[in-house]
Design goal:
The chain is an alpha+beta fold. The chain is built from eleven helices and 37 strands. The radius of gyration is 28 Å and the shape is globular.
Length: about 625
């Protein structure tokens, strides 16, 4: 998210308005604390605007930064500990500051901004902030990241590990959480130490009725301080150790990857305890590993043995009426083109070298300039082209017995459809030749027939089907409205954005939200129907917060990889995330992002990608660069 957290702004503003007419109280606040904001310390020279137990507002002659700094120091001296939201970012703004504090079980939001209506004085608002899931802070805690609604807490302390273990066990028990023993598979009493060792410290589980379990992790740092993390985790983690230790496996066996026939248990067995809290991420990375397994097998065997890579290079003809802005080889199949995102994927029975030769030739004849190939092997070729202000990147990879091509760039981004009055009457007449469409099932969802191209994409929390049909958008839309109603999908009222050449409609389904996008071009309509399985994503604990995208990283290489996205740099160690879910994660804002990948001994690779709020992506670093798979 750019700038301040919008939800917090609205919450503060709304609270202030409500407080003018009636006190702001919540069940959580009333049960545990009574905070009177009117009695909190105020800045020197402050002039009261409004005061009540719930909200107090005053002005200060100081600038916004100076007033915010002074307020933070006053509150800290009174025992308030400041924390940041771990799942959102904020940009520096000299005219606005939002701070959050906690003292024991009390929460406080401080909103500092310019007040134009009061002669551009600085306005400071104190607002009581309900703590939904209270977690204890160490007295000397620093670098505090806290999200009470998750719940999630991360902090750094100078205190010894055993002292902090006792502190958190005592404080969590006082808040209704009981220690849980995975060895005995039951709740324990407040005095029982159920902690388990890991490489750099200890971890322990706590349970509470009608809540997800909490995992407390204490890790010694090289600088002598202690990292503390408390986070809600899936219920199934409470039984991992029982499965693993009966009988106990030697360390080497614990690190071995699980059998390929049991993909679900890959995240539940044979893991270091240190990685247990990330277990559910293994489901994501497992999907990415599956998607690249055949390709990696070909890359690791001699080129002469690689499937789909015959020694001879054949000359490929161009596919007639290809549904993409760039030429496609005649052997292209399973074509998936998205002009909105500027992406293209397809498979071919031709060899990697044959497809690469096709694009070198056809793009040169089209006036495109070819950059030097970063990777040029019999089983993988990476091509980059540029022309005027446009660019195109193609990764051509042996994938089992076929060749898979992934393309991206501005050359694939299509402009918005022209107004209906500018559309060709001849092309519309052609599109209306087919007016009766029948339903075919693909991955459990309907696709219209007859179609020239159809395909599907399936991941852990997402399903997408597509087809290209010689019919108008009106005909295809009528087909989907009819067929989706049969499976109890409902169109969201007022969501449809319609024109003669395009339709964008939102639906609700028993599994989650869905979206249908229809695009008309050259006498055919391309349909893309995407379903997000929200409840499954929410149960996994990986659903990102509102307005965010979650990325999970893995590295299949034998060298460390460094990926820079915008201003954030992520280091993915050699092998991390390739056999177990121990790779890093990152939450980013929606929109278009530029990234740079650096691997020792290889040229840096730079590219761009675009993501939508709520997405979950698994990103695996492989020989061809970043191999993405959208999971939600």
């Amino acid at each position: 998210m750019r700038g301040i957290t919008l939800g917090l702004m609205l919450a503060v503003a709304t609270s202030a308005l409500v407080a003018v007419t009636e006190p702001l109280t919540t069940p959580a606040m009333a049960a545990d604390i009574t905070l009177d904001t009117s009695k909190l310390a105020r800045l020197p020279g402050a002039k009261e605007t409004y005061a009540s137990p719930a909200t107090t507002i005053f002005t200060s002659p100081d600038s916004v930064p100076a007033a915010a700094d002074a307020a933070a120091k006053l509150l800290a001296a009174d025992g308030w500990q400041r924390y940041e939201d771990p799942f959102s970012a904020s940009a520096a703004n000299p005219n606005l500051s939002i701070m959050t504090f906690k003292k024991e079980r009390q929460g406080l939001s401080v909103f500092v901004t310019l007040a134009p209506a009061q002669g551009n004085a600085t306005s400071v608002s104190y607002t009581a902030n309900a703590i939904v899931d209270d977690l204890p802070f160490s007295k000397d805690a620093s670098e505090i990241k806290y999200a009470p609604e998750r719940p999630h807490l991360a902090l750094v302390t100078q205190a010894p590990l055993e002292e902090q273990l006792s502190f958190f066990r005592r404080e969590l028990t006082a808040r209704g959480w009981l220690p849980y023993s995975r060895r005995e598979n039951r709740k324990m009493t407040a005095d029982d130490d159920t902690s388990e060792p890991n490489e750099r410290g200890k971890f322990a589980f706590f349970v509470r009725d009608n809540h997800r379990p909490l995992m407390l992790r204490l890790q010694n740092r090289e600088d002598g301080r202690l990292d503390v993390v408390i986070e809600a985790v899936p219920q199934k983690l409470l039984t991992l150790l029982v499965e693993k230790e009966e009988p106990a496996a030697p360390p080497a066996a614990a690190a071995a990857p699980p059998a390929e026939s049991e993909p679900h248990n890959e995240t539940a067995k044979g893991m270091d305890a240190n990685d247990a809290f990330n277990a559910i991420a293994g489901e994501i990375l497992n999907e990415v590993r599956k998607a690249t397994k055949d390709a990696m097998a070909d890359l690791n065997r001699p080129a002469s043995q690689a499937s789909g890579s015959p020694a001879a290079t054949e000359t490929l003809a161009e596919l007639a009426d290809g549904n993409a802005p760039i030429p496609l080889p005649a052997t292209a199949e399973e074509i998936d083109f998205d002009g909105g995102r500027g992406s293209l994927e397809f498979e071919s029975a031709s060899s990697v070298k044959s497809v690469a030769a096709f694009y070198r030739d056809v793009m040169k004849r089209g006036g495109w300039k070819a950059d030097r190939s970063v990777i040029d092997k019999d089983n993988m070729v990476v091509l980059r082209f540029s022309k005027a202000a446009q660019d195109l990147s193609l990764t051509i990879m042996a994938f089992g017995k076929k060749t898979r091509v992934t393309a991206s760039g501005s050359a694939l981004a299509t402009a918005e459809a022209e107004p209906a009055e500018n559309a060709s009457e001849e092309s519309h007449a052609e599109a209306k030749l087919v007016t009766e469409l029948t339903a075919e099932e693909r991955s459990g969802l309907p696709v219209p027939a007859p179609h020239s191209v159809s395909g599907s994409e399936k991941s852990l929390f997402r399903l997408s089907v597509n087809a290209t049909v010689p019919a108008s958008t009106e005909t295809v839309l009528a087909f989907y409205r009819r067929e989706l109603a049969k499976i109890e999908w409902k169109e969201q009222a007022g969501s449809a954005v319609l024109s003669a050449d395009r339709a964008d409609v939102a639906f609700t389904s028993p599994q989650g939200p869905a979206r249908l996008v229809l695009t008309y071009k050259n006498g055919e309509t391309t349909s893309v129907l995407s379903l997000r399985k929200t409840e499954e994503a929410r149960k996994s604990g990986l659903l990102p917060p509102d307005g965010k995208i979650k990325l999970l990283f893995g590295n299949m290489l034998e060298q460390d990889a460094v990926l820079t996205i915008g201003k954030t740099t992520v280091k993915i160690g050699a092998g991390l995330g390739s056999k177990k879910p121990d790779g890093p994660t990152l939450e980013i804002a929606p929109g278009k992002h530029t990234y740079s990948l650096k691997v020792s001994g290889q040229p840096a690779q730079t590219d761009a990608f675009e993501v939508t709020a709520g997405d979950i992506w698994g990103l695996m670093i492989g020989p061809g660069g970043v191999l993405p798979l959208q999971m939600y």
